[in-house]
Design brief:
alpha/beta, six-stranded mixed beta sheet, 12 strands, 15% strand
Length: 336
């Protein structure tokens, strides 16, 4: 087992210098720090977690706050969680996952202990009751999501408004004039969940700019709800030729339901989605989509948090630009 004295000998410095490089308690030259870090990497040195926490007054644990509320799609949430855990390990940190819907009380309980050094908060609502506490905590935090008032907070996410706009703009370019958004389950909108509301804003704004006839439909996340939705859309909007889906569990059953009702995708109906690439690519009809970049968002959220822990200023807002990938589910209206 590699010891701190082995690292010191390899780097040509004293054991105390290695300790200072690890804890940051005393300044050392950049050249010496690089030499120590290179020796640590070459020798595979791992500081003892208890000793490291004692020396630095830190736990080297991050909290990931992601309440598993009704209506959220757990597989996508877990993609974000995995990316946060992977990013944290790159910085030699562990992650405490908090999934209960405890609001301010749960955050305060964790923050008032020495369990975690900092927090990453998900499932952000436009008017989130946790925001005043997050602003006041003596521990840094990063939000994956943008509330209505983000001043004094550090937020990162996909530009979901831009994603909604991008889908509608592409359908308009293909000649579609009547479009619908099949959105998240109703309870997600009732809570004012930020990302879902942003998609609606973008979808509606782009449709209005383009003079399209549009409608927005929350949808329960089940095949039966998808079938009912397809039937309802065709009854209420007989001229419908373009659909945007922001609800992963209903994407495939919705396409199946439309085809059962006699509409071929994309010959009669174009479908675009906001969803993970692997879902869009793996369907019987590969779906044109804007990807949810969970790996990049989670990794960059951790990087922002580590910079804040180091006292480095960071941007308050990081919006990732949406990118649409065209696949087999969209086409020119009436081309086939």
């Amino acid at each position: 087992m590699v010891k701190i004295t082995d690292v010191a000998r390899h780097a040509g410095v004293s054991p105390s210098t290695v300790s200072y490089a690890l804890s940051g308690k005393r300044p050392i030259s950049e050249e010496t720090r690089r030499r120590v870090e290179e020796s640590i990497r070459r020798l595979g040195y791992r500081p003892h977690a208890g000793a490291r926490a004692l020396a630095s007054s830190r736990s080297n644990v991050l909290a990931l706050v992601v309440p598993l509320r009704a209506g959220i799609h757990v597989p996508v949430v877990m993609q974000f969680a995995v990316s946060v855990v992977t990013g944290a390990r790159r910085h030699d940190h562990d992650v405490l996952l908090l999934t209960q819907e405890e609001g301010e009380e749960g955050l305060r309980r964790v923050a008032d202990t020495a369990l975690v050094d900092a927090l990453i908060v998900m499932d952000v609502q436009l008017h989130d009751s946790r925001l005043p506490l997050l602003r006041a905590l003596d521990r840094p935090s990063v939000l994956i999501g943008f509330p209505a008032a983000a001043e004094g907070l550090t937020c990162i996410d996909l530009d979901f408004r831009g994603a909604g706009e991008l889908c509608v703009e592409r359908l308009a370019e293909l000649g579609h004039r009547v479009v619908a958004l099949v959105g998240s389950p109703p309870e997600v909108y009732v809570r004012g969940t930020a990302f879902a509301q942003r998609v609606v804003e973008g979808f509606t704004a782009a449709a209005d700019r383009g003079g399209l006839v549009s409608s927005v439909h929350p949808c329960e996340a089940s095949p039966a709800a998808a079938r009912r939705m397809a039937d309802r859309l065709l009854r209420e909007q007989p001229g419908l030729t373009g659909v945007v889906v922001h609800n992963e569990p209903v994407l495939e059953p919705l396409i199946d339901a439309f085809e059962h009702l006699g509409l071929r995708v994309p010959a009669d109906l174009s479908v675009a989605a906001i969803c993970p690439d692997e879902l869009a690519e793996g369907l019987r009809v590969p779906v044109t989509s804007v990807a949810i970049p969970s790996a990049e968002v989670g990794s960059r959220a951790v990087d922002l948090l580590m910079q804040k822990l180091a006292g480095t200023p960071v941007a308050e807002a990081t919006l990732l630009t949406p990118r649409l990938v065209e696949r087999g589910s969209t086409g020119v209206r009436g081309a086939l």
